[in-house]
Amino acid sequence: MLFAIDVGNTNITMGLFDGKKLEKTFRMTTGISRTSDEFGVFLGELLRMRNLPLDVIDEVIIASVVPNVMHSLTNGIRKYFKLDPLIVEPGVKTGINIAIPNPRQLGADRIVDAVAAYHMYGGPVLVIDFGTATTYDLVNGDGSFIAGVTSPGIRLGANALWSGTAKLPEIEIKVPDTILCKDTISSMQAGVCLGYIGQTEYIVMQAGLFLGTVGQSQYIIDKIKEESGLKDIKVVATGGLGKMIYENTDCIDTYDPDLTLYGLRIIMDKQKQA
Length: 274
Description:
six-stranded mixed beta sheet; single chain; 2 domains; Nucleotidyltransferase, domain 5
């Protein structure tokens, strides 16, 4: 079985594949400092709690945007699983062309999401990952990654709201019943969640791309569809808060919470075709 690991800024998400089928998923916090032994024991216990022995794993692939985690994580896998994990990095076969001036600057998570979106939904496709940061990445019909945008994620915006003010409390990230709010909590939820939904709709309706956002402000790249010549762009969302956006807008075609894990599986398959 394949053990796919996505190391994000907030969480480490893991998936266990039997062939092409995603059998199990697990999640743990990224922010806690762990030794290689702690990683090995913790991952082993996750499997044992699902009645899976360590030797059921014969392949491991990792995509990470947190370099500080990688030494302990990879050594823990080598020590406890007796396997050398494949790390998604420059030189690894992905099945898409990174057609930007400096491909090495592109995060592994964005490459993996683009691979999954293109192979699973076809191109051209805009994949939006609502994570700690929100990323908008465009793959054309030929499977070339041609543009990407990074903006502050919804939780970062919410954190800034309550950490930068004296009296505003920390809130749950959810859509309120109405925008006509009568209390502080719901008014903050409306500003954060509904404002972000509106931002997402405007970005996708304009061109599928934008140059960035500061708070709720946006800069729109004009004529992206016209200049790229792309039509009928599919819009695929993923990430922990993506479901909330998807359920409250018509501008996203599909929400796939396991997109990154499937992308890792596809990339592992590509290595066997070399």
